[in-house]
UniProtKB/TrEMBL annotation:
<feature type="domain" description="Chalcone/stilbene synthase N-terminal">
    <location>
        <begin position="3"/>
        <end position="219"/>
    </location>
</feature>
<dbReference type="GO" id="GO:0030639">
    <property type="term" value="P:polyketide biosynthetic process"/>
</dbReference>
<comment type="similarity">
    <text>Belongs to the thiolase-like superfamily. Chalcone/stilbene synthases family.</text>
</comment>
<dbReference type="InterPro" id="IPR012328">
    <property type="entry name" value="Chalcone/stilbene_synt_C"/>
</dbReference>
<dbReference type="InterPro" id="IPR001099">
    <property type="entry name" value="Chalcone/stilbene_synt_N"/>
</dbReference>
<dbReference type="Pfam" id="PF00195">
    <property type="entry name" value="Chal_sti_synt_N"/>
</dbReference>
<dbReference type="GO" id="GO:0016747">
    <property type="term" value="F:acyltransferase activity, transferring groups other than amino-acyl groups"/>
</dbReference>
<keyword id="KW-0808">Transferase</keyword>
<dbReference type="InterPro" id="IPR011141">
    <property type="entry name" value="Polyketide_synthase_type-III"/>
</dbReference>
<feature type="domain" description="Chalcone/stilbene synthase C-terminal">
    <location>
        <begin position="234"/>
        <end position="379"/>
    </location>
</feature>
<dbReference type="Pfam" id="PF02797">
    <property type="entry name" value="Chal_sti_synt_C"/>
</dbReference>
<feature type="active site" description="Acyl-thioester intermediate">
    <location>
        <position position="157"/>
    </location>
</feature>
<protein>
    <submittedName>
        <fullName>Type III polyketide synthase</fullName>
    </submittedName>
</protein>
<dbReference type="InterPro" id="IPR016039">
    <property type="entry name" value="Thiolase-like"/>
</dbReference>
Amino acid sequence: MTATLRGLSTVVPPTVLVQSEVRDVYAAQPGLNRLAQRILTTAFNESGIETRHTVLDELTWDPRDEEPVFFDQATGDLLLPGTKVRNDIYTDEASRISLEAGAAAIAATPGIEASDVTHVITVSCTGFYAPGPDYVLARDLGLPAGVQRYHLGFMGCYASIPALRLAAQVCDADASAVVLVVSVELCTLHLRSSNDPDTIVASSLFADGAGAGIVTARPLEPGERGFDLDRFATRITPVGEGDMAWKIGDHGFDIGLSPQVPHIIGEHITGALEPLFAGDASLSGALEADASGESIAHWAIHPGGRSILDRVEARLALREDQLVPSRSTLRDFGNMSSATVLFVLRGILDGVGPVAAVDGERVAAMAFGPGLTVESALLTVRG
């Protein structure tokens, strides 16, 4: 039996960052040189983002009595807390938002209770603590004492696809398995003012959010919708190892995000997708000049940035409507690293865009991350 992704749920923290307001705060920071000012204006204005969410409720102009940690309202200055301070916030907030997402996924899966969950897989690259979010989920959701737990850490934006692959493999090995998958990313904990172009671009893109779902081979209930997890593929591009990177610094995590990333993805995307479609006659034309044919109805592309989506759309000759879920996710939520592709998949199920997903349609999902690594999945809409 095929493993199915069910109960797909997404969560964002309540504090909203309006992109134009964030741009103005960053532009007003002391010490920015003229080049940084130009890069900043372009990065924020051309990001394709209107709003993002953050766990840092002090990143507003609402009056506060507490001592500022990240943002001094009196001066308008962005502060520079150390990595320990940032990670301590991650420990508290990642636990909270993971629980919210995990509980939502279980509640959204008819016929599944917390006591049914046999495995937990958590995903995150924006903080560390042990026992981690996998333990918190098992303890606070009332999962069985013997639930098996796995954590995929520090892999970057593509990591939810390997998590779904691992969940599907568990279900292939044990038809009775019920796997809870939760991705939580708190990227805004690591944003800061800088003259470094990579840091500026990251500050214009990244946001906080969580996605979760249940993967099991049990059949869907009447009226339920989900995705069959048909096939997965992974590829490392022959270039780009230094163009996307994620390292731990003294004042948070340091991201390397060169302007070559969209070009690299555009050059190698078809080669990365070929293994996903190999051996399936119904998909033989999916990578031909017109990839917008009926073989793949929907594309869940990780919206790492607007230029990446533009390059993928052009390279695969996709119709504009096929990337509406990805562009809408970028517009409303920004880049939430590994959680983002789960938001896009949820958008496809919810009918975001002019073409609603119907039972039996094929979906190609793809996410990119350090390496440069391309992870992809082939899914079928069910329900």
